[in-house]
Amino acid sequence: MIITANDPKRTSWLEVMPNCDFPIQNIPFGVFITKEDVITIGTRIGDFAIDMNALQQLGYFDGIELTDSVFLQDTLNDFISCGKKTWREVRNRIAEIFDNNTPTLRDNEKHRDAVIFAIEDIEMQLPVLIGDYTDFYSSREHATNVGTMFRDPNNALLPNWLHIPVGYHGRSSTIIPSGINIKRPVGQTLPKGETVPVFGPSKRVDFELETAFITTDGNLMGENIPIDHAEDFIFGMVLLNDWSARDIQTWEYVPLGPFLAKNFATSISPWIVTLDALEPFRTASPKQDPTPFPYLQQTGDHAFDINLEVYIQPEESEAKLVCKSNFKYLYWTMSQQLAHHTINGCRVNSGDLMGSGTISGSEPSSFGSMLELTWAGKNPIQMPDNTTRTFINDNDTVTMKGFCKNENVRLGFGEVTSKLLAATVKY
Amino acid sequence: MIITANDPKRTSWLEVMPNCDFPIQNIPFGVFITKEDVITIGTRIGDFAIDMNALQQLGYFDGIELTDSVFLQDTLNDFISCGKKTWREVRNRIAEIFDNNTPTLRDNEKHRDAVIFAIEDIEMQLPVLIGDYTDFYSSREHATNVGTMFRDPNNALLPNWLHIPVGYHGRSSTIIPSGINIKRPVGQTLPKGETVPVFGPSKRVDFELETAFITTDGNLMGENIPIDHAEDFIFGMVLLNDWSARDIQTWEYVPLGPFLAKNFATSISPWIVTLDALEPFRTASPKQDPTPFPYLQQTGDHAFDINLEVYIQPEESEAKLVCKSNFKYLYWTMSQQLAHHTINGCRVNSGDLMGSGTISGSEPSSFGSMLELTWAGKNPIQMPDNTTRTFINDNDTVTMKGFCKNENVRLGFGEVTSKLLAATVKY
Q: Quick check: pTM over 0.90?
């Protein structure tokens, strides 16, 4: 089936401003609440949210095999379970409905009123019920930077890193959509040179610039997803801020990995951009040496050229761009991550979220965390209000953006933004 | 409100064999399917499963504030969300209904037929939808044994261990109830003395003897659960086998912790035994030195005297008891684990599962894993069929049992059992 929704010549009768992340070639999926407190699954073109349940009830999806209530849900999980053929049919149909040359909905005011909402009149929700959240560690530059700072510059990468897409389990219960603010975590830390820990608010709250992919039901327990089929099980991608408390992490993480240093909050962008939409931006990932085991080998290109940016905005000041990176820098691909995750028979469900790990490039300006950008606090960043930052301060807002651009089209993820509030705790 | 269900003098008109784990003083909660494919929430007395939805529909829970369909569910999550007062009222009422001196149900054949099933006629399901699964590492003896084997016998415990109940996130999608068999995982391992990994079935599949507790909705994101209230948020406990592939673990776990070595399978016993039922077995936990931070300090006894056993049964042979341990050996209590887990504002939901970590005692016969029992394979265990074991072989069945006993009553968890099948993989 051809992805007609990607036609770069197509324009929509809905207005799309230049440099908007949501032209008719994007058609992402999300969940929103209207002013009337109706929750529904939808998509977005320009600055308009589109109620897909209303579209279905009005017959606009007729001919596509869908259950009656698949879009009258508060999560996308059931729609994602329908599989790739259905996702593609629905996305192609939406492109057709909103094409400049299709008058049906355009010229029906009553239908338009039921279907289309101004983006400022709706509130985005978490798009999926996330059963399990896994976070990988797939940027060679990030792993090298961390290894150089904390271990040995001459042996920065650990022995397993070039053989396996290292990953670990995260916490689903504290994954939040863009726009929800978080609190500085408290916990135990070990001051430098001390042997006894202290207790209090973290002094080193950091962001980690990541993307994440969302899976459909992949495999039964005890079965694996072969790498050549892995992309069929990926519904789409979001931006992810893997909030981290570096000082808590350093004290707690041996030997079982990060725990309270990470599970206080993880922010994601609310619109899931499909792999189909990203197809025109497919590109090569870094050459892998040594050659990985056969279960991790693949031919063709499996990265995407996605520009990534991080901004820090102090309270009552303008924002500063602190990082420019790109998804294509990642050493391990999403297909490799998914093939590895399931090689032991680990079951993957609809709505599972898999983070990329911090995406750093080779240039210092592309490092995806304050830990790397300030080299563990040694090189503070100058802010527009003449303050400096080594890590994130109370009332700073961290915003990540992601977009793809070629000669024909620009499309993207919008943003994931969240403000860090001061710590509060009772005990 | 008094826990009348614990009255040790009470007997039931349902037959309970001596040494049965399910006297009328237990009244655990679970989910089962009948021969007619009806799924329901239930409890157990002796060798009888009791349909709690049928009890409710017939009016036996009248006067207790419950929604109509709270037991007509395929998970206990909604009932758990009702909170401790409701759990206690329902458990007390069940004790009353099945008391030898209460004729109402006993003498109503039609009602009995709708409510009571022989245990061999039903099939137990996973009792809860587990949003997040956390596994702790709270046995000092286990952590010391592992540290002695793999690091330094003179500094076996890592510096953080006596200050924080170390824990990490596990995978919810592969948690299975007792009776489901599993497959030997395949993956990468690094043979001793080599620098290049190999790929194939794990050669060191192990069990870990654990218990786990199940929470109710505890706190909003950004809030913590103070230790003095922690037990109010614990619905009950199960036995847990934290299946582990030691050779995969050794290669993959640095620096982010265990991943594929653990997430191929985790088995739990299907009946949740409430903290109320365990109350008569409350006992002291080991003295803690150094004194923990105030957020981890508590008065009174917070352990329970639960005898634990592990059996290995080779195919076509009798089972061998390989480990006898006790829940009370754990250094960190469940209250401390939950207070620590939430001190950073990490949200806890109804149905979350929190494993204790391997429960080893000080005697070699009480070590809770093959890794410790055979001291990393150095001391094989002799089996009844004259074979030996260093780790678990294909077609071995591993069974864990847990029970409490005093002069008045014995009650327990039944068992968690699972057979390890040979590896299969496609790629």
A: yes
Q: How far apart are CA B186 and CA A343, in angstroms?
A: 7
How far apart CA A249 and CA A189 sit, in angstroms, is 8
A160 vs B426: CB contact, 8 Å cut-off? no
Statement: residue B35 has pLDDT above 90 = yes
Kindly state whether residues A360 and A399 are assigned to the same domain. Answer: yes
Residues B247 and B358 in one domain: yes
Is B427 inside a domain boundary? no
Contacts of B291 in chain A (CB under 8 A): none
> What residue numbers bound the domain in which B98 lies?
4-124
Residue among A182, A327, A376, A360 nearest A266 (CA): A182
| Whether residue A246 sits in one domain with residue A157 | yes
Q: Can the peptide bond before residue A290 be classed as cis, meaning omega within 30 degrees of 0?
A: yes
Residues B269 and B194: beta-carbon distance below 8 Å: no
Q: What is the pLDDT of residues B90-114, one digit of tens each?
A: 999 999 999 999 999 999 999 999 9
State whether B222 and A339 contact (CB < 8 Å).
no
List C-alpha distances in Å: B238 to A350, B152, B327, B414.
27, 34, 12, 9
Split into its structural domains, chain A has a count of 2
Whether residue A426 is contained in a domain is answered as no
Q: Which tokens sit at A330?
A: 């990642």
Q: Is residue B426 part of a domain?
A: no
A40 within a domain of the structure (yes/no): yes
Closest in B131, B186, B344 to A343, CB measured: B186
B37 marked as part of a ligand binding site: no
- ipTM, two decimals: 0.97
Please judge whether A426 and B347 are an interchain contact, meaning their C-beta atoms are less than 8 angstroms apart.
no
- B329 annotated as a binding-site residue: no
- pLDDT of A79 > 90? The answer is yes
Return the amino acid letter for A326.
N
